[in-house]
Write a structure and sequence with these properties.
15 strands, 340 residues, nine-stranded mixed sheet, globular
Length: 340
Amino acid sequence: MSKIVTLGEIMLRLSPEGNKRFVQVDNFDVIWGGGEANVAVSCANYGHHACFVSKLPTHEIGQAAVNALRRYGVDTSAIARGGNRVGIYYCETGASMRPSKVIYDRAGSAIAEADPADFDFDAIMEGADWFHWSGITPAISDKAAELTRLACEAAKRHGVTVSVDLNFRKKLWTSEKAQSIMRPLMKYVDVCIGNEEDAELCLGFKPDSDVEGGNTDAEGYKGIFEAMAREFGFKYVVSTLRESFSATHNGWKAMIYNGKDFYVSKRYDINPIIDRVGGGDSFSGGLIHGLLTKENQGDALEFAVAASSLKHTINGDFNLVTAAEVEALAGGNANGRVQR
């Protein structure tokens, strides 16, 4: 069992039932989630010691967020308590040609206003094997960006492998601001995860491929992977490759580069998608588990792609699957027959 630390914001997600629109409903379903919290839940489900670092208010809604993580075995001992509010986002689930829609109400959340004094990052990173963060966290606020840097520095002091999911969010910051913050943080990163849009908007790299048009030929990524590894010293560069035919039908695969060899995963045709929110996070969680436990990068990537494919079939942000279920799919068992 490895100790995996993640840093970020867990939010209260309010969603209409099924595929209803915001303007149709009188009630919302309560769901908890958020990039790095989702990764922590995945890692806990695979049997790791997953430690989530954040700040939440002391009131009952803050406690509900803590309880949601504890339910799935996540270590919440490094969550600071205080601040005024839990971040909220509203998520309307799309269907067919109507895309899903997210509306944020997260300004002034506890983690956005947290101070370095709220965390002892050296103690948190003690004994850790892996530290994961995403581009969402430094986008929340300048204070959160500073926390991210301090956590990365502590991870490096303790010899911890650091991964990032670039995760550009245009509703949180501009590409110019993202690059000014993200590029300097890359010197701490060993494993860089993202897609073609993230690489361009966060780091200024653009692949030679037409992903919007459905052309996800991995050849277009090789040059950019090599350039990113060269510039930032990444040990692994990883990208998911999503073909979006509709809100409920996607093609899904990924590729990985370790500085020498490229590997492209098998492709999954996901149809119908039940909930794609958290799909990238479930990929990151699967990749972390794979790189910690598998013999080679190919096996690690196949585990990650299978894990994230399964997430698309599950309501909510968290990927509630076991390692055995992921292994079964990665091994070719995709028929969905009842398991008796």
